[in-house]
């Protein structure tokens, strides 16, 4: 039902001396790519040139550096608990943002800042684990309940993304809980708390959108059925030539809602009215965007 994406902090680029060093010219074996971008950076001798597998041809007009610095609609969800007029104004704000932008930022969303911080910390610790530990979850099968990797499929001929990711299922009854990473030791506990809270936030937003359409509050929730929640944690290491690649290429999300938390590192861009906008970081908030499934309903 909801996709929760987290962007941890960039990691150190130092080489600990325990692994073989590689340069961008050495990266001809796709196995290096399967191990992750952080592995390439950590085991490179002062990488200055982007490996060709990651070079993404971009039209000049699509360059991230040309994105407009702007702000998406900001909505205070506490208004849903206020007097009738305030509640109706909040519902209208979400409806307008959904129709005109497909994106909005929520404040006073009800999720404790401490829970958000703990989740970011646990994810950062996961990506800083030794490679062997992370490779326990390496997979290119999109149906696997837990996956670690870089681009979605490194065995196919296409440009790779400059990011590592951890993805796994969540939901109100996380049947795959026992498969989630058990290292760092806190991961399962905090991920369960965080994903349960985000699920409830998604249900609240679905209900508000339903009301804004003049429908029963539970309409979208019923249409989605039991639903599926996917946790996607994206890690973007420092890049030697950031003007030649992207952490994620332009895309739309296929689900119902994406509820995104970042760690203060700017990079998110959205397309609105044929122009790209850079979305600034605002502490303690979430960025919400409507997925393909919801827009088609």
TrEMBL record:
Q: Where is this region: Disordered?
A: 1-23
Annotated Gene Ontology MF terms? 2-oxoglutarate-dependent dioxygenase activity; L-ascorbic acid binding; metal ion binding
Return the SUPFAM superfamilies for the record: Clavaminate synthase-like
Q: Where is the Isopenicillin N synthase-like Fe(2+) 2OG dioxygenase domain?
A: 228-294
**Name of the encoding gene:** LOC107774265
Q: Does the keyword Ribonucleoprotein apply?
A: no
Please give the name of this protein: Protein DOWNY MILDEW RESISTANCE 6-like
Keyword Phosphoprotein listed: no
Q: Which InterPro entries match?
A: DIOX_N (IPR026992), IPNS-like_FE2OG_OXY (IPR044861), IPNS-like_sf (IPR027443), Plant_2OG-oxidoreductases (IPR050295)
UniProt keyword annotations, A-Z: Iron, Metal-binding, Oxidoreductase, Vitamin C
Domain (Non-haem dioxygenase N-terminal): residue spans on this chain? 72-182
């Amino acid at each position: 039902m909801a996709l929760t994406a987290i962007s941890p902090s960039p990691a150190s680029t130092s080489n600990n001396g325990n692994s073989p060093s590689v340069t961008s010219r050495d990266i001809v074996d796709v196995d290096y790519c399967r191990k992750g971008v952080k592995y390439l950076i950590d085991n490179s001798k002062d990488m200055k040139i982007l490996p060709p597998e990651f070079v993404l041809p971009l039209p000049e007009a699509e360059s991230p550096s040309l994105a407009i610095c702007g702000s998406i609609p900001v909505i205070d969800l506490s208004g849903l608990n206020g007097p009738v007029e305030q509640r109706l104004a909040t519902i209208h704000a979400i409806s307008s943002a959904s129709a005109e932008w497909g994106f909005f930022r929520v404040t006073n969303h009800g999720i404790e800042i401490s829970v958000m911080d703990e989740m970011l910390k646990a994810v950062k610790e996961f990506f800083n684990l030794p490679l062997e530990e992370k490779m326990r979850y390496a997979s290119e099968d999109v149906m696997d309940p837990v996956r670690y990797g870089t681009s979605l499929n490194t065995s196919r001929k296409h440009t790779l993304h400059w990011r590592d990711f951890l993805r796994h299922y969540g939901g109100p009854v996380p049947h795959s809980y026992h498969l989630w990473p058990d290292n760092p030791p806190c991961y399962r506990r905090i991920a369960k708390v965080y994903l349960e809270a985000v699920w409830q936030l998604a249900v609240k937003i679905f209900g508000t959108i339903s009301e804004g359409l003049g429908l029963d509050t539970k309409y979208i929730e019923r249409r989605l059925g039991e639903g599926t929640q996917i946790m996607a944690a994206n890690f973007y290491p420092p890049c030697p030539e950031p003007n030649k690649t992207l952490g994620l290429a332009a895309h739309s999300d296929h689900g119902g809602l994406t509820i995104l938390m970042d760690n203060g590192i700017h990079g998110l861009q959205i397309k609105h009215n044929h122009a790209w906008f850079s979305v600034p970081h605002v502490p303690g908030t979430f960025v919400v965007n409507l997925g393909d499934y919801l827009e088609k309903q």
